[in-house]
Amino acid sequence: MNNALNQLQPYPFEKLRALLGSVQPAADKRAIALSIGEPKHESPAFVAQALADSLKQMAVYPTTVGLPALRQAITRWCEQRFGVPAGWLDADKHVLPVNGTREALFAFTQAVVNRSDDGLVISPNPFYQIYEGAALLAGATPHYLPCLDSNGFNPDFDAVSAETWQRCQILFLCSPGNPTGALVPMETLKKLIALADQYDFVIAADECYSELYFDEQSPPPGLLSACVELGRSDFKRCVVFHSLSKRSNLPGLRSGFVAGDAEIIKPFLLYRTYHGCAMPVQTQLASIAAWNDEEHVLANRDLYREKFDAVLAILAPVLDVQRPDGGFYLWAKVPGDDAAFTRDLFEAQHVTVVPGSYLSREVDGVNPGAGRVRMALVAPLAECVEAAERIRAFLQK
User: Fold this and answer.
1) What's the CA gap between 232 and 203, in Å, rounded?
2) Phi, psi for residue 160 in degrees, rounded to 5
3) Cis-peptide into 179, omega within 30 deg
4) Which residue intervals define the domain Aminotransferase class I/classII large in the entry (predicted)?
5) Kind and range of the H or E element at 107?
6) Where are the beta strands (DSSP E) in 191-305?
7) What is the pLDDT along the chain (397 residues), one digit of tens a residue?
8) In this structure, what DSSP letter does residue 359 have?
9) Helices 381-396 & 338-349, crossing angle to 10 degrees?
10) Residue 353 region, left (φ>0) first, then alpha (ψ -120 to 50), else beta?
11) How many of the other CB atoms lie within 10 Å of CB of 32?
12) Which of 340, 338, 328 is nearest to 373 (CA)?
């Protein structure tokens, strides 16, 4: 077996199951899970219809590069969403469909990391655990940058040493962040691109939450937006990851894309042809329908706004919690130990959250997730409100 497998840590939900496994929750209360970030809003009916209409395509082998019509739909969406000038993104060179961002983030790391170097894969901390596992299995060393309240829950990139940047092969960004909901500002994105040029590393921007935000007049910027402001039409060293899971409530479709530097996309495509991960044709056709429509995305944001408004009105008076910049998580500071809080809340109120320390790594004696919990507001409004009321009752006791 690959020895690197021994370096992998249990996934946060495995730790959570172990934490709660012997706990008997209140029998008079139904379970409410705010733990897993799985969208629960209704999937668009027109996407389901497109999928059903294309089932005859199951007899067709898909190509790894995907249908031209899908790549063109993705290109148009990037132009409209991030202000990319027409012609900058070549659908044949800069775009690849992928089976959700989780699969792509892992595969991308295997393709990009040069095992012969003593390389680092740098990520925010707390973070999406795929970044860490992908780095270890690619033969690189994960390096964690703390996301603290004092810096707006973004890494302090100015504190990173020249030696660390020199060893960096991939810098993972997540904006809006999981679990903090923080956005990486435009000026920071441009600064990081300059650092990537100086030290020759790749920026991999995980933007799967980019379409969940609160101000319709100010959509969050992305790495492509920064490239546009810099006049960087080749997207050199910049790659973005997007998905229909959160944007369109289609986590089961397993559909997303990777876009950016053609000199990176081309060898990544070669890797993927051996990886055997071509998206089924019927999934591609359903994805075209989803990327071509924004009405359902607007309606989706409205549902999340309603839930955040209702839940924060209940929790803010009793808990240190604020509305995030984006995403669907609350990153709440809790009294005492976060794992103990999670266990006791589950026992008393049958509400499940995730300890922040399970989503982070301790570095130099500090775990930036300690003392916080992540709450995913993915359940229906009434269920989220009931969960918030139970949490308030728990805190008031």
Assistant:
1) 14
2) -80, 130
3) yes
4) 32-391
5) helix 101-112
6) 202-206, 238-243, 256-260
7) 999 999 999 999 999 999 999 999 988 999 999 999 999 999 999 999 999 999 988 888 999 999 999 999 999 999 999 999 999 999 999 999 999 999 999 999 999 999 888 899 999 999 999 999 999 999 999 999 999 999 999 999 999 999 999 999 999 999 999 999 999 999 999 999 999 999 999 999 999 999 999 999 999 999 999 999 999 999 999 999 999 999 999 999 999 999 999 999 999 999 999 999 999 999 999 999 999 999 999 999 999 999 999 999 999 999 999 999 999 999 999 999 999 999 999 999 999 999 999 999 999 999 999 999 999 999 999 999 999 999 999 999 8
8) G
9) 110
10) beta
11) 19
12) 338
Query: What's the CA dihedral at 267, 272, 275, 277 to 10 degrees?
Result: 170
Structural domain range at position 339 = 3-42+296-396
| Cα angle 82-87-91, degrees, rounded to a multiple of 5 | 85
Strands (E), 244-290: 256-260
Please identify which residue in the block is written with the tokens 């056709």.
Answer: 285
| pTM assigned to the model | 0.97
Domain boundary among 293, 311, 339: 293
By residue count, the chain amounts to 397
Q: What DSSP character marks residue 122?
A: E
Residues 352, 203 within the same domain? no
Q: Do 373 and 252 have their domain in common? A: no
> What total number of domains does the chain contain?
2
Q: Which of 258, 293, 328 is the last residue of a domain?
A: 293
